[in-house]
Amino acid sequence: MARVGVFVCYCGANIAGVVDVPAVVQEAKKIKEVKIAIEYKYMCSDPGQQMIRDAIVQNRLTSVVVAACSPRMHEKTFRKALSDAGMNPYMLEVANIREHSSWVHQKDKKAATDKAIDLIRMAIGKSIANEQLHEISVPVTKRALVIGGGIAGIQAALDIADARIPVTLVEKSPSIGGRMAQLDETFPTLDCSQCILTPKMVDVASHPYIELIPYSEVIELDGYVGNYKAKIKKKASYVDFSTCTGCGTCTQKCPVKVPNEFNMNLDKRKAIYTPFPQAVPNKPVIDAEHCTMLLKGKCGICAKFCEKGSINFKMVDEVIEREIGAVVIATGYDLWDPKPYEEYGVGRYKDIITSLEFERMVSASGPTNGVPIRPSDGKVPRNVVFIKCIGSRDEAKGIEYCSKICCMYTAKHAILLHHKVHDSHAYIFYMDIRAAGKGYEEFVKRAQVETAATYLRGRVSKIYKKGDKLMVRGEDAQIGQVVEVEADLVVLATAITAPKDNPALARLLGVSYDKYGYLSEAHPKLRPVETAKAGIFLAGCTQAPKDIPDTVAQASACAAKVCGLFSGDTMKKDPMISTINNEFCSGCQNCVKVCPYQAIVTEEIPLGPGSKEMRIVAKINEGVCQGCGSCVAVCRSMAISLAGFTDPQIINEIVAI
Amino acid sequence: MNKLTYFPGCSAHGTSEEFDHTLKLVMKTLDVQMEEIPDWNCCGATSAHVMTENLALALPMRNLVLAERLENKTMGIACASCYSRMKGTKKHLDENPELARKINSTIIDEGKYKGTIDIKSMLQYCYEEIGLEAIKSKVTKPLTGLKVACYYGCLLTRPKDVTLFDSPEYPMSMDLLMEALGAKAMEFDYKTECCGASFSISDTEIVESLSGKILEVAKESGAHLIVVACPLCQSNLDMRQPDIEKHTGKKFDLPVMYFTQLMALAFGYPEKELKLPKHIVPVEAALKHIGEAIPEPEKVKKTPKAVEAESEVE
Amino acid sequence: METEVKEVKEKIVSVENPGITAPNGWQPVIIGILCNWCSYAGSDLTGTSRIQYPPNIRIIRVPCSSRVDPWFIIKSLQTTADGVLISGCHPGDCHYISGNYYARRRFLVTKKLLNFVGYHENRVQFSWVSAAEGPKFAKVVAKVTEDIKKLGPLYRYKKENF
Question: Which of A117, A135, A494, C133 is the most exposed place for a label (fewest CB within 10 A)?
């Protein structure tokens, strides 16, 4: 016979101000299974919990109902009170009489009280059918996989490796470094980007706990948290890294020139190349789409000049496997193509460039030796117009969100322009100036004061050619006039976007993504680095646009999460999962088809005890099951039950009203 | 022989007579039989849609009902404003069938609106239905040597989900049509900028300022004349040109012609069929450029590397 | 923001059994089965935001809308409920990836069957409410309550003892 304890909370005046708590307690006492019903001002407080513990022991209770705030608030708290009193923590049910009664029916106290009584009856009915559950332990592979070798991936890998956990870092391009390697100086300190990045890159390469796999992609991920299996495709580089000395002779001798994507196609690289001088690893790869030898069987000059004989045109892609416990996704961002801005003449006029092209120009190791130039005639520009919010915040042509970093890097560009070309003048057309970080507002002020940059609040409606200049026609809303600026060069602060491959990668890994392709965090406020899939974490712009400080912070947060996951020998798992009763299972496999996690497989068991004939039944992998209950509802034989939400429990709730 | 339902609009028999006349000539050459809608009414233009929604929808709707009676697949409209009103109305009615029924039953006696006719501007019809190849094949006197700036105005390609034609910001259909005739279409940034439209009557200064800018940029492009596809565009840029010259002190000498006039010329019709005396800015001098050789454009030096800076570099 | 059901002054008749009128002061009982991650969280947000709605609904929490067996709906109608509301995550946003797609299809079929058997089509309703849609939940409850109130008490196929 069930022995239920009912504990009704006042929650100060939050519940008691509307619901007649004493009356509720009296009604609860009338139910025959209820052995004790008490009320208290704050059940979640220490004395409140003590009351529960004492009542459990003194009344030999078999289950507990707490009528208070939402279970999403304090279910864990009260479960702990139960286990401290020696009762199985899953014998608790919470009746939500605050968010679902007192707070939403403030005008009708009688109705609120009646509803509270009903909710408690439902909770009592459910708790009578509760089963004792125990947390499950699953083994955990203590190795992390980091996908992406930009600053986010680098930071995450270093932090995890420093905790003596092995890390496999996979990067798609021949070198790690990502977007940060393309930057000249970073705001707000104007640190040289390469100077602060390369030490970290070298750390990654030399760290005893990091396995760096460049020029590779993850092509498969199976399994579940703590027990993943990853397949990684190492693209053929045609260069034997173990013998190559990085002398660079092959690159010098190669006759093929290809647009250089690292320099935003402003200059050319060779078919055998390292992406930039400080590349890690500093070994060249051959671009198979442009190498004459690989395409036509002719040339091979690089191999002829290689003293170490490191070049091997017969190399093929290789697929390797790794057992992984957790994954950090750090795939960075792509840039929006400003092609839709036809009224600016984008694509028609060479002297209209994007911000990253400008960044490459002002970089000392860039295609123009650190001096910004007009692509049309190579002259150094004097009047440069910067236009912010190109594609960002634009529902008509672009995307609705704000790209977050452009206000700051445009101010930076104004400063860099002033440093490189002393008699230049920057005109910046803006809608707003978003400078919310530490030292950011001061940095923008510095740009305005130091460089005398002209900030014009208004949109640019047209850019047209006049002679060899570009006339930029926009509004200065602060004086209510249309203005025209004669520009030598126009720089567009284009929106940043999620990497184009993100949706495909997300589907491969089993995580969700939003309409823009950004990977979805578990909760935007409280769980910004986790995904809804346990064991997979997000760092950097792959989740949303952000600057370097936030990226590094998020990467370190991922590392902390991974370390937490790996902190024991095994991992604890929520026991509210489904189980199959083989006696009833007919082997129809409906459940196999609907499980979103492929947690159900089939197995063969004897037809009867001692029988030689076999029959098929379904089998649930308790490590993978996430407890959604999709299988329960499709089972024709009622063979599956979901712990914590069984059919008897729910039916009891329905009939208790 | 293709059949085209034709809506001339109010100005066709008046101020844009040269447009209407040359249009009929070139359509004959292109084997298109034009059927003018009998008893058509004014589309309402700007005036109706600032009065009431019902009036703004009913006027074009009646024309659509009359057009559907002729049972041709497509209706071609010369004036861009009429085109915008008619096509916009059709879209609105198709998306709001209740409203369409209400207006049909209360205001329009001529028949039931079916929504079956496809509406195109004459430029759109030439480009999409007739096609550049067919037009090129009828050219007997190519316009080589003539440099034109194609001005589209605001309504031929916008709003883009109504017109569903060409690019809203930098269209090229008229340019390509001119090239098919042998002329050279100059790169012209102001091809879709506002000319001031019907402020021509109520606040002429606005037109002088906006149209003035268009003329300035067109002149900069090196064009001999401006080509248009809309009577209001033509009238603002042509009729107001002397006043603009007087108030700004700049000389333009840019005649403004309809694309159908140039088509007629290229198809071999004599100049007198073009009704040139109707133009305010004389056209004859510009047409003399036909037959001139065009010099090769200068090769631009490619120097992607930075020239040693005239200013100091840190 | 308040969403209250207007007082219906006329006699309320049970729509499936027109011979029966509701007793004076009758209030419908509506059972709401909400998925934990979206709709239940959304209903909590309604509470936190203090948005008011009619007090007729009794909420049952499930992990996912796909857990809901048509049996629960039938049992609810047979026993304590005059109407049922099932609410889950928006299509594409299911916490368990695909659960709400199965739920959606299952309920279309269930609803057809219930209509066929003789329940008025508004007795059972479905909604998608996300964790951020506190106000929407209140609107949904107000609408469902108003609908059920117009239908009158449910007498058809009620169990005598349960």
Answer: A135
Residue A297's domain spans which residues? 236-316
Tokens of A578: 């489904």
What Cα–Cα distance (Å) separates residue A486 from each residue in A193, A352, A353, A428, A490? 32, 13, 16, 13, 10
Mean pLDDT of B36-48: 90
B-chain residue closest to A470, CA distance: B189
Query: Of all residues in chain C, what percent carry a pLDDT higher than 90?
Result: 70
Per-residue pLDDT reduced to its tens digit, C23-52: 988 999 999 999 998 899 899 999 999 999
Name which CATH class applies to C28-151.
alpha beta
Q: In what order do the strands lie in the sheet with A469-476?
A: A460-466, A469-476, A481-487
Q: Encode pLDDT of A568-584 as tens digits.
A: 989 888 899 999 999 99
Question: B308: pLDDT confidence band, cut at 50, 70 and 90?
Answer: very low
Across the interface, of A345, A348, A377, the residue whose CB is closest to B303 is A377
- What pLDDT is stored for residue B292 in this prediction? 78
Q: What is the pLDDT of residues A280-302, one digit of tens each?
A: 999 999 999 999 999 999 999 99
Residue B311 has pLDDT above 50, yes or no: no
Q: Which residue is it, tokens 């409906």?
A: A590
Q: How many CB atoms lie within 10 A of CB A347?
A: 13
Whether chain C has a CB inside 8 Å of the CB on A508: the answer is no
ipTM over 0.90: yes
pLDDT at residue C8 above 80?
Answer: no
Q: Which among A371, A378, A467 has the least Cβ separation from residue B313?
A: A371
Q: List the single residue in A341, A345, A380 with the smallest CB-CB distance to B309.
A: A380
A203 CB burial (10 A radius; 0-12, 13-18, 19+) = middle
- Best interface-test mutation with C: which of A15, A628, A637 has the largest number of C CBs within 10 A? A628
* Residue A539 · residue A531 · CB < 8 Å: no
Do residues A113 and A26 both lie within one domain?
yes
Which domains occur in chain B, in start order? Answer: 2-123 (1.20.1050.140), 141-287 (3.40.50.11810)
Nearest CA in chain C to A100: C47
Query: Domain residue spans in chain C?
Result: 28-151
The span from the CA of A274 to the CA of A256, in Å, is: 14
Residue A267 with chain B: CB contacts under 8 Å: 304
Q: What is the pLDDT of residue A198?
A: 96
- The reply to whether residue C60 touches residue A122, judged by beta carbons under 8 angstroms, is yes
* Phi-psi group of A48: left, alpha or beta (phi > 0 → left; psi -120 to 50 → alpha; rest → beta): alpha
Query: In the structure encoding, which two tokens stand for residue A121, read together?
Result: 């009856």
User: In whole numbers, what is the pLDDT of chain A averaged over residues?
Assistant: 95
pLDDT mean over B137-146: 94
User: Exposed, middle or buried: residue B124 (CB in 10 Å: 0-12, 13-18, 19+)?
Assistant: buried
Contact assignment for A112 to C55 by CB distance below 8 Å: yes
Residues of C in contact with A633 (CB under 8 A): 66-69, 102, 106
How far is C154 from C140, CA to CA, in rounded Å?
20
Q: Which residues partner with A145 through β-bridges?
A: A168, A327
Q: Which residues contact A58 (CB under 8 A, 6 or more apart)?
A: none
Closest partner CB to A628 (pick from C53, C63, C81): C63
Structure tokens at A50: 């003590």
Q: Kindly list the partner chains of chain A, i.e. chains with 3 or more CB atom pairs below 8 Å.
A: B, C
Give mean pLDDT, residues A600-629: 91
pLDDT at B297: 65
Calculate how close chain A gets to C121, using CA atoms only, in Å: 21
Q: With touching defined as 3+ CB pairs under 8 A, do chains A and B touch? A: yes
Residues A409, A280, single domain; the answer is no
Contact A532 C95 (CB under 8 A): yes
pLDDT tens across C112-156, in order?
999 999 999 999 999 999 887 889 999 999 999 999 999 999 998
